[in-house]
Amino acid sequence: GGLKVDRGVMTRLADVAGAAREVEQLGYDGCWTAEISHDPFLPLTLAAEHTSTVELGTSIAVAFARNPMTVANVGWDLQEFSRGRLLLGLGTQIKPHIEKRFSMPWSQPVKRMREFVLAVQAIWDCWHNGTRLSFEGDFYTHRLMTPMFVPEPQPYGTPKILVAAVGELMTEMCGEVTDGMIAHAFTTKRYFDEVTIPALQRGLDRSGRSRGDVQMFCPVFVVTGTGEAEMAAAAAGTRKQIAFYASTPAYRKVLELHGWGELQTELHRLSLDGNWDAMADLIDDEILETFAVVAPVDELAAALTRRCDGIIDRVMVGLPAGTPEATVRALLDEVRGGA
């Protein structure tokens, strides 16, 4: 039990082994890659080889750039090679990226993602339990599987599948069919309480499952340091990040819940002019503290625990570069102790 604390790693292959080893040695619970300018799965092969206990996840791999069979295959192989440590995190991306960057079809993202997850699970069921593969959906159909194409049995079970969700329908879908949900950093405790958790619960109710069946994973903006100067520098950087996300229409609902809908309009206008400094200035302390966990290093564990309490099961934190090892270890120990 207790809160798990995870860290992201860069995905350049030359850097992965050392980075993953460091994440494990520092005592983090999980190590995550993202699919931005590099493949998200290849680095996890190296991470698995150079670690033994840390959980390994993709946050996220773009589902619609692939198909359920290729994802089932790489997931199965990584699960076996890591001895059961894989967290397979999938996301939809957005329409222009799927169509114009990946040259793949986009439609009905929630239905399509639900079907994608069910298809991967059906393929694994065939491989793991010897059931006949006959998956027929609106988007994906998998009917052919002969012994030659079935991977060797492995004793670690099938990987957990997590899906990235912001909107209520995708969140409901996570509650219905996935093993976990990847929330966006641009969220608040109130949005979780009033929107995310009720939506997740509707999905759980549909499938007769309970809250413990779905891990809630969430990256969190952290503003920390050992003195006022460090805190101020961290706050300035985080204001910019929050302003960037807050200018995006996709996240307007989060702002509207707090009565800050007009802020999105204004930030979007400034973003079109590339006026990033003016944007950051609009993120006042109240907004900063609503979206970020703001606390000096020695109070950070307690602040993180308060933010995640009863909602988030695994949190990804980005501590400032150069945070001393002893500080990181103490923080992780304190969070896990539930102090």
Strand line-up of the largest beta sheet:
1-2-3-5-8-9-10-12
**Stretches with pLDDT under 50, minimum 5 residues:** none
CATH class category label of the largest domain = Alpha Beta
Helix and strand string, N-terminal first? Answer: EHEHEEHEHHEEEHEHEHHHHHEHEH
How many strands, which pairing sense, and closed or not: the largest β-sheet? 8 strands, parallel, barrel
| Radius of gyration, taken over Cα atoms and rounded to an integer in Å | 20 Å
Under the CATH scheme, the architecture of the largest domain is Alpha-Beta Barrel
Number of domains: 2
What's the average pLDDT?
A: 95
The percentage of residues in β strands lies in 5-15%
Task: Tell me the overall shape.
Answer: globular
CATH superfamily of the largest domain: Luciferase-like domain
Span from first to last CA?
Answer: 14 Å
The CATH topology of the largest domain corresponds to TIM Barrel
Number of strands: 12
Describe the 3D structure.
The chain is an alpha/beta fold. It folds into two domains: 4-220 and 299-336, TIM Barrel, CATH 3.20.20; 225-294, no CATH class. The protein has 14 helices and twelve strands. It has helices spanning 13-26, 42-49, 68-81, 95-101, 109-129, 168-177, 189-207, 228-246, 252-257, 261-272, 276-281, 285-291, 297-308, 325-336; strands spanning 4-8, 30-33, 55-58, 61-62, 86-91, 135-136, 141-142, 160-164, 180-182, 215-223, 292-294, 314-317. The strands form two sheets. An eight-stranded parallel beta barrel has the order 1-2-3-5-8-9-10-12, surrounded by six helices. A two-stranded antiparallel ribbon has the order 6-7. Helix 13 runs parallel beside helix 14.
